[in-house]
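Formamidopyrimidine-DNA glycosylase
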Amino acid sequence: MPELPEVETVRVQLWSKLSGQMISRVEVFNKKTVGSDTSFGRKLKGLTFADINRVGKLLIFSFHKKPELYLLGHLKMTGQFFFVDKKGELTGGGHEVSAADTNHFPNRHTRVAFHLQAGGALYFNDMRLFGYLRLADSKDLEETHARFGPEPIALDFDKEKFASALKKRKSSIKAVLLDQSFVAGLGNIYVDEALFYAGVRPTRRADKLTKKEALLLADGARDILLEAIKHGGTTFQHFIDAEGKRGNHTEHLQVFGRQGKACYRCGGTIKKTRVAGRGTHYCPDCQR
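Tokens:
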């Protein structure tokens, strides 16, 4: 599943294509994707994209002269935005697909199509139908924001508050970091990487971390996410960016996907186990 760096990469690159574009019509091919909202296309027709923001891994599209209407989009595991310009040139971001799935649009995995007045279209494809597109008003958006914790890369992220909040959590530190209501944007890859950075074993109870460890963990989460954004995200089987390029942060990973290999820090062997229901990578010598 794309995590914060991958979604941020898609956000920036989609905006380069959609800035100032007006929606001329909307086709919904699968009502589940839009929450069975029969007014979805009608409400978006004629609107011009004003901005694309993000909270955690959720994309938020806003529109000119419609301050009370937003489009929320989540890629989940296999979601993908494809932009096809009026010349037929394709860019896409999210879940990686085969060439056969990009030969024509709409295709078998297309769930929604946004046709643009200037030509071209934005397609939302989702093979497994876990992703979604929803319309929201200001109240809905406020409630959505309230469900997310602070992001480690935010300028106002409070490390001291983060450290104090961990003391109230008795779950494993990995489970706590995966909880989007506690801290937003961290997924399986970057939780493992941040814990390695801080020298904290994923199975440790969150309330047992020292303040020094907690502050180091906050620093690690921030630095690792920013570095991954700079590299365009991490690519395994599911992610390409909105320029059709694979993220190249993979070579910078310290533990994730490196089970059985030597730790770059101590030379020990990276292990893989299961924590909080997720495959988890760590160094048993570096992480306590």
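The chain is about 25% helix and 25% strand.
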